[in-house]
Design goal:
The protein is mostly helical and 241 residues long. Helices cover 46% and strands 7% of the residues. It has helices spanning 14-23, 25-29, 35-38, 45-61, 66-69, 75-94, 99-112, 114-123, 137-147, 172-175, 199-211, and strands spanning 10-11, 96-97, 127-129, 153-155, 193-194, 215-216, 219-220, 228-229. It has a two-stranded parallel ribbon. Strands 3-4 form a two-stranded parallel ribbon. It is globular.
Length: 241
């Protein structure tokens, strides 16, 4: 009762979402500068729906405010805002929800209804999130809302294993996690022993990663680290091709 959804709403998987956009593409084609987002009409409805889906999900996963995007200086961003607002309108009319929208609706729920947020916080003693390098912006916003000012959250991850960028994940979440808290209040524990791999694999990996440049615009996008093999006797065999 706290959301826009009515009973028996339809939940889209990725194909359902794209097919929905494919069916409704004329609603987007008529928007000002829509081609800057979805491409030229000559590319076809299916290709346009795929491009549109990617950008709409990006807005949801980054928890962007379409009304702020509407005021951007770039015509492409303003066009994306119009597309997103039209998409939300169509979802409402058809009582539908997509996968990214599950998180988007959850964030809106927690922001707009402090009583609901308070009830959830009361049920949670501690939060622990594994594979934190694979979280996206909206997931982090939800987690930090649930944690509130209690600082009862622990995250675990490896910035060298970011695998879900295609789904909006960003390693910045784990790299910048301590910045959400007062200085020196976030304890960092380094887990530097690799219990899985042969020392030859670890040496190769270390040399490979150290050759790359992790600096960009004055920021470092990798924690300084030295990974060690476990203490054990290993066979004298080639471990890396």
């Amino acid at each position: 009762e706290f959301t826009r959804l009515k009973r028996s709403f339809t939940l889209f998987d990725q194909f359902d979402q794209q097919y929905f956009l494919y069916q409704k593409i004329k609603h987007f084609r008529g928007l000002p500068d829509a081609q800057l987002v979805i491409g030229d009409d000559q590319t076809g409805r299916w290709a346009q729906s795929e491009e549109l889906m990617m950008w709409l999900n990006k807005v949801s996963e980054e928890a962007l405010d379409p009304h702020v995007l509407e005021k951007a200086p770039d015509p492409e961003v303003r066009a994306l805002a119009r597309c997103f607002l039209k998409y939300q309108e169509l979802l409402n009319e058809n009582n539908c929800l997509d996968f990214s929208g599950i998180q988007y609706e959850a964030l809106l729920l927690l922001r707009r209804h402090p009583d609901v947020l308070a009830q959830l916080r009361d049920k949670i003693t501690y939060l622990m999130v594994d594979e934190y390098q694979d979280t996206n912006t909206i997931q982090e916003k939800i987690l930090l809302l649930l944690a509130g000012s209690r600082n009862n959250i622990c995250v675990v991850g490896d910035d060298d294993q970011g695998l879900y960028r295609f789904r909006g994940a960003t390693i910045r979440n784990i790299l910048e996690f301590p910045q959400h808290f007062p200085t020196n209040s976030c304890t960092q524990v380094r887990l530097a022993v690799n219990y899985r791999s042969h020392p030859g694999i670890i040496a190769f990996y270390t040399a490979w990663m150290e050759r790359l440049n992790w600096e960009e615009h004055g920021k470092t996008f990798r924690f300084p680290k030295k990974i060690l093999p476990r203490e054990d006797s290993f066979p004298e065999v080639p471990a890396v091709v």
